[in-house]
Amino acid sequence: MFLGKQSVYAWNFRMDPEHDPERVCFMASLRGGRELQGFFEVLLSPESGAPTPVIFTVTGPTLESKQIEKARGPELVRVVDVSAPFVFAAPADGDYELCFHYGEDKRVRDIAFFYDWGDAEDEVSELLKDAVKQDKHLEPLQQKAVAIMHELRNVQIAQMRMRERIRQNLRMLRERKRSVMWMTLLELLTAVGVCVVEVIYVQQKLDTRRFF
């Protein structure tokens, strides 16, 4: 998902052991020193029930190996939570895996996942590169512009996290309203049923008295 010049990658997905028995992963090709940041949140849903923690890891860069089990790089980030921000600087150029693992609890999970690796900052730096070559006095301006883009990225991710929290609260509110509605309907039907039984009982009593 692209918002203006700031690019934030947004995913809402479901982890289901029947389709993804081990983990769900995303790939990110990063330059060495590039900062990747974002956040994830396990959502409340009618199917999955209350949010349960998920294991989030970042591994890489991917190592070249003929053996598949040895093809993954070192684990750089590991978070176990229902909701958490993350940030890390890539130690080298390469492909990094951003993975969600079930852990011991294999139940279904709905997850909101947002991340960004600052490519907009590279674009701004590249745009000002020629101007800086011609006039070194513009170098502080270049650094300031990159810093502003970095702060805008932080603000945008924080806004997206807030929106997701609002959606989560609205979803919970709708679920509660639906539960209250069904409970009210059940109570109403129960009251009607009791009234019908009482009417039938009284009618039978009256019929019995008439008979005698």
Your description of this structure?
- The chain is elongated and about 110 Å long.
- The chain is built from two helices and ten strands, in the order ββββββββββαα.
- Mean pLDDT is 73; it is low at 1-6.
- The protein is of the alpha+beta class and 212 residues long.
- It has a single domain, classed as Sandwich (Jelly Rolls), CATH 2.60.120.510.
- The longest helix has 73 residues, at 139-211.
- The protein has helices at residues 119-134, 139-211; strands spanning 2-3, 6-7, 9-15, 23-30, 35-43, 54-59, 75-81, 83-89, 94-101, 109-116.
- The strands form three sheets. It has a four-stranded antiparallel β-sheet, with helices on one face. A four-stranded antiparallel β-sheet has the order 4-9-6-7, with no helix packed on it.
- Helix 1 (119-134) runs antiparallel to helix 2.
- It is found in: Membrane.
- Keywords: Membrane, Signal, Transmembrane, Transmembrane helix.
- The chain crosses the membrane at residues 180-202.
- Residues 23-154 form the GOLD domain.
